[in-house]
Amino acid sequence: MLCELLVALLVLYVIWDVNYFIRCVVTLGYGMLFQRKRKVTDQTTIYGFCTTQDVDIFIRHMNNARYIRELDFARFHFYGLTGIYGKIKAQGGGAVQGASSVRYRRTIPIFNAYKITTRLVWWDDKAIYLEQQFVTLADGFVRAVAMSKQCVTKINVLELMKELPGVDEQPPMPTELKQWLESIETSSQKLRKELSNK
């Protein structure tokens, strides 16, 4: 019986990224059980540690793909603590990653602790926009900054935001977000043109 269980667990680890799902459950569970709820306009924070499973081929610092994975956990944590995802689901909507951009400023060395802060910076009728930062705890240095567009389906985000506590009015669009969205639109136009020429 024990042998069969171990084989089943081994098979799960081979064909699924079990650690990802465990981390999702732990991150969300810890936030919901032990942290106070936040307004959607509040910043949330999770903590991480760069281990041997996070490093690149030179075994010195976190690899680029790992940053994106860690951002997922921080985003889920933000959704859970602020309750925004629950509101979206209650109205029959959903949320998907529409775009993201990461600016790497300095590497996170192996065996270093860091935090990821997440905050809502803007929204329009179809999406919310989050800014996330990786900050090493030892020196407080911002190692990477990410911007993400979370597309919300089937509901109007402007109407949704009016129902959330702490949201008085839509803030002005940050300059870097405006420029990033312009670059996305430029890319979309180029791809549409290429498709129409086929």
Q: Could you state the order of secondary-structure elements as H and E?
A: HHEHHEEEEHH
In CATH, the homologous superfamily goes by the name Hotdog Thioesterase
Shape label? globular
Outline the low-pLDDT stretches. Answer: none
In percent, how helical is the residue content?
40-55%
- Walk across the major sheet and give the strand order: 1-3-4-5-2
The CATH architecture comes to: Roll
- Write down the CATH topology: Thiol Ester Dehydrase, Chain A
Q: List the domain count as a whole number.
A: 1
How many strands, what sense, and barrel or not for the largest sheet?
Answer: 5 strands, antiparallel
Strand percentage lies at 25-35%
N/C terminus separation: 59 Å
- Beta strands, count: 5
Structural class: alpha+beta
Walk me through the structure.
This protein is an alpha+beta fold. It has a single domain, classed as Hotdog Thioesterase (Thiol Ester Dehydrase, Chain A, Roll). 43% of the residues lie in helices and 25% in strands. The chain has helices at 2-15, 18-34, 64-82, 84-90, 157-162, 175-196; strands at 44-49, 94-104, 113-123, 127-136, 142-153. A five-stranded antiparallel sheet has the order 1-3-4-5-2, sandwiched between helices. A hairpin with a 5-residue loop joins strand 4 and strand 5 (142-153). Helix 2 runs parallel beside helix 3. It is globular and about 55 Å long. The N and C termini lie far apart (59 Å).
